[in-house]
Amino acid sequence: MTDTTGDRPLWDRTAGELAAGIRAKTFSATEVARAFLDRIDDTNPMLNALVDIRPEEALAQAADADAAVAAGKDLAPLHGVPVSTKINTSQRGYASSHGIPAWAGAVAEEDAACIAALRDAGATLLGRSNSPAFAVRWFTGNDLHGTTLNPWHSGHTPGGSSGGAAAAVAAGMTPIAQGNDIGGSVRFPAYCCGAVGLRPTMGLVSGVEPRGAEEFDSPMSFQTMAVHGPLGWTVDDVRLGLHAMVTPDLTDPVGLPVRPPLGEPGRVKVGLVRGVAMAKPHASVNAALDDAARWLSEAGHEVEEIELPLLGEAARLWSLLLYQELRTMMSEIERFGDDTVRISLASSFAAAAETWGQHPTLDTYIKGYARRGTLISRLQQYLGQDRILLTPVCAEPPFEQDADLAGDARVSELLAAQWPMQAVPVLGFPAMSVPTGIRDGLPSGVQLIGGRFQEDLLLHVATAIENRATRTRPTLSRAQAQTG
């Protein structure tokens, strides 16, 4: 479906274009919702990215949005813009299933804080995105909803755990998707699907679940590493999503009453880190870094290639702190999880043991958290207020589908390759995945890491990359989805 003022279908417009068009009455929120529902009908059967779509509810939300426009009411930034939400985040009237069959009936009575923020920003909540059970894989599939495919090649992962969100964005099912990230679960799916994904500074977006939800004493690593963040097709989509999702919330253990700065910074210093001792980048990853560094230099930014071993140290700490706490949850994972999660975690524990031993002591764990604070201080001192890092998203191209089920040796390689995904959550800094084009039929991209609460620097630099990269949507066909 197209409007009369442009040659792009509504589903291929940015969130900003959609919001502006609805506000100007160029097209209605109902027309927008129908366009995206039609796009979902065309593409989702091939990808299985969205798993709970209710057209009547989406159209009712859109009708309310149109009534507000007609009444001349003040309109929020995402008024009438479709957004998907993830199956592990509470949305009233929908199951917070986590992809687990036994939890298929766990219908939330209220929204999680970040979902309530999107609703308050005017978004039309359009579909739930798929993830792995317990959201602890870099692959997306579960026994309840099945497997999500990469829209570029079904033989490769769409990423995880927000793989459904990224695949939906890339295919044009929604311009913005809500995801969450404890070890790359926003940034890696964006990389694998050719979208943009932002992990905000810890504390900006509230992770508090609604009252009435089953009380869960969140492990320390979840409290200090897990964040919610937006995925989008463009940097501007992600910028809008971030500012909609920011929820100053002091009921969150790490919540802060602040908002990221607005505006366009000037010249930024960029430290290019190609690799750490645990993994060197694949040739295609190096090429993406070269492209991004050249484009940023052309845009007037100062790029310097550096070594920064503390990122490798932070990545190793991630495998200690997170996996030690996941071990305490294994009885529940064994009871409710599927075989893929059990197999993947068993190999992940084995890989972590190569660094930390089979049974790390409490003393090792405590000293790990102590070291975390030192690394945070050192990195913030280096970045200051005008410097960011340019790194790989992953040391490999998007992994082959279900590579984490291929045995301990392959999982050890995956964990090493994911050092850029692991280092950031330990430190709590903002980071985003930015696409640079297509190489060998798969998306390529880079990661940007900024100082705490410096999301404006990341978005500014990401725009310079986006303006120079060749972007295209995946060409979807049923044969492609079936055969790759």
Describe this structure in words.
The protein has a single domain (about 10-484), classed as Amidase signature (AS) domain (Amidase signature (AS) enzymes), CATH 3.90.1300.10. Helices cover about 45% and strands about 15% of the residues. It is built from 17 helices and 12 strands. The chain has helices at about 15-25, 30-45, 55-70, 115-120, 165-170, 185-195, 220-225, 235-245, 285-300, 310-325, 330-335, 340-355, 360-385, 410-415, 420-425, 455-470, 480-484, and strands at about 80-85, 125-130, 140, 145, 175-180, 195-200, 225-230, 270, 300-305, 385-390, 430-440, 440-450. A 10-stranded mixed β-sheet has the order 2-1-5-7-6-11-12-10-8-9, with helices on both faces. The radius of gyration is 21 Å and the shape is globular.
Please name the defining characteristics of this protein.
13% strand, 12 strands, alpha/beta, ten-stranded mixed sheet
Q: Label the CATH architecture.
A: Alpha-Beta Complex
Query: Could you give the order of the helices and strands?
Result: HHHEHEEEHEHEHEHEHEHHHHEHHEEHH
SS elements, strand count: 12
What is the CATH class?
Answer: Alpha Beta
